[in-house]
# Entry
Amino acid sequence: MLETIVKIGGEDGSFTLLGHQEGESWSFYRLRDESVLPAELLGTNLAAALAELTPRWTRMRPIVVHPEFQWKIYREVLRVRPEDEPLWQKACTQNNPTYALAHLMATSRNTVVLTGAGMSTESGLPDFRSKDGWWRSIDPLTVATIDALENNYEVFRDFYQYRIEMLQRYEPHEGHAILAKWEQEGLLHSIATQNVDGFHTDAGSVRVAELHGNLTTIRCHACGKPAEPASFLADKACEHCKGRLRPAVVLFGESLPEHSWNQALQWFHAAELVIVIGTSLQVAPTSQLPRYISGRSAYINLDIEGAESFAFDFVIQGRAKRTLTELDDMLTFILDTQGRANDR
Ligand code: OAD
# Structure
């Protein structure tokens, strides 16, 4: 299906750039005036396609700008002919929730992030409830409960061994790295996560509350003493009491680690802005955390159906990595512009 990427108008008439998405990549086409003719392929490079559409495109009036391309086109205007920016500003940044969120971040003195499994799917790890999620092919009751650990240990162990081995094949992505960078730069206070993959810490984030524990921290279910992941992966029992080894993750029916939970509550209370990323918000008590927000809030998720009941200020439907990359670019731009304005 061809979608309108941008429609511009001026004295020479109007020009429309169309786009066709396949997977993650787009091809761009010129809509010909005589619409009976097929659209003409202009390639996969947006900048080149815009220039080919009509060389003076930045000087024309934007009539339609595809929401997914607003920021890219705005950046292109600034690159090609910055003096035309006022013509484009409204169409590219107004009603753009990611841009509005970047503005809020630039002024927030205390921003906190909450993540779920959707944060790590672009690293290759499945989430739980999407089409390819764990709980679509495995009943959580058979692997993620105390009952499974105590009465069906081999199945329990296989499941978690497999998930630990997966971690060795995958790594944090650029979105994790951006969150870590924001913390270093003082733009983000902390992260509360339901993820047990340890990717936030691996990416360099320091203030992280792991609400559901961590897959690679192993302990004995009977005596509580720590053990090496290698022992768990080699089917060994606890060397102290011969008890069953398990990852220190929260199973259904268990309480959340008190320290992490209290930390998260404190962070949410104090936050001026909370950004919730990649979680269906279906599992209590973490799903209740957004209700403790007294500041502003945003939700970034592929599926936004359940968002209405949380009264988020901004809802951004999209992938975590792509949205965070764009948000980071916008934030850098806004902070640079503010910095330049303050220097004057
Ligand atoms: P879910 O699988 O319930 O939700 C993940 C959400 O992320 C879904 O709404 C997806 O649409 C979205 N998503 C997937 N990929 C995305 C991407 N690249 N960018 C943005 N969004 C994306 O996972 P959680 O909410 O984290 O607990 O699940 C919470 C808890 O339920 C887990 O910690 C686990 C599970 O049972 C236990 O095992 C105790």
Summary: Residues 131 and 137 are 9 Å apart (CA to CA). The mean pLDDT is 94.
